[in-house]
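Listing S7. Sequence submitted for prediction.
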Amino acid sequence: MLLKPKHWEARRERYRGIRPAEIPPTRLFLLSFGLLILVGTLGLLFLPGLYEGARLGFVDALFTATSAVCVTGLIVVDTATYFTPLGQAWIALLIQLGGLGILTFTTLLIVLLGRRTTLGMEEAAGAQAHVLRHLDPKSLVKAVVISTFLLEALGAVALWLTWSGRFGTAGALWPAIFHAVSAFCNAGFSIFSDSLLGFQRAPATLLLISSLIVVGGIGFIVLADLRARYLSRTTTRLGTHTQLVLISTAIFLAAGMVLFLVFEWDDQLRHLSWPSRVVNALFMSVTPRTAGFNTIDYDVSTNPTFFLTILLMIVGGSPGSTAGGLKTTTAALLGLALWGRLRGQQSVSIRGRTVPAETVQRASGLAAGGLAFIAVAVFLLAMTEIPAAETADRTQFLRLVFEAHSAFGTVGLSTGVTPALSTVGRLIITCVMFVGRVGPLSVASAMAFAEARTKVRYRFPYEDVVIG
């Protein structure tokens, strides 16, 4: 008779009282994204008819599949010329599945946390999903999928009508579909070799793409709350989560547009009329929120534009959306917490509602962990991508900093350094894209479940430390 090791018995006792429904689904989430990336990579390696020329190697196929599934948009080859329409369709399918995977999982996760009956569980969830409690998980997934396809279809029709005069009725169809999916999913892939540089003087196109990006980046919870408040009239007020997302998004967009206008008015926007300058500045404020399309060359942008773009890439979009980054709510809560501390307040309040301290602590931990991970990624890229003979040249280092932030925020903007990365550098960026897409969400959900399930029966004695 074989005896079971003691640690097996200990693990069995540890999980004896835990129901399967209480185990965080983050492991399944990570495996599903990893499996989708694997399928995408194998498809790029073996499916026929995807390329105009030679096939991608394994590392480049892995990089491209990860960028598509994680809706990032960084590329090592030109999507417009390197892939056939069938290959572009494969990229679009990976973008769609990756975007829907993030959208459905995050929404389900927040709703499932919000369904808990105890006050502690609701505080752990931040009570963000009160407008969706009437939906069961199956109905919720159906609503997310239908809403996604409907919004993408509307965007595709609008782009097709806008581009028919430029590309012809038939020629505008596929670009409209591809860019509608890419924009709503905040992917940043384009089948134009210069991204959207050729549309600097096409405000209708830029406003349509911007609208898709913003709608895809605010999240299904916000869209459902707005629908319940203004269309169904089933709620009397917008939820605190919705208000925070809308206010913070508006502030970031408006502030970014004004600053980009100031920074690039006499530089890359100087040849445009003033209405086109305003629209392009707005687009420049929208696209770092993890969209990745560009209407300017960031490699020759002004230093303030370069730095502001990095800051916006760190923030990203909103929870429960296709966008990446640390999220608008995280940045907003940290800003409100700082402002409250300076005024001597012990809690964070938003329009007559107090945010649970646990939520603010999760925001702080998520921001600290994300910035630490980016720092490690930049450090590794600096060691692998800058030869010793060029260490005195800081230009390449700044490009790598930009690239790492773009990968972690799943943005896709680049200074053109991506195709020049070494094999090791491409693998590093691949890992950064994956962690940037699923890591913050997994960490945040793990912390939420842990706080909801943990009952503190004791604490150690207080002893203060000096800060500042």
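Caption to Listing S7: primary sequence and predicted structure tokens for the chain studied. Confidence is low (pLDDT under 50) at residues 11-23, 115-131. Residues 203 and 279 are 6 Å apart (CA to CA).
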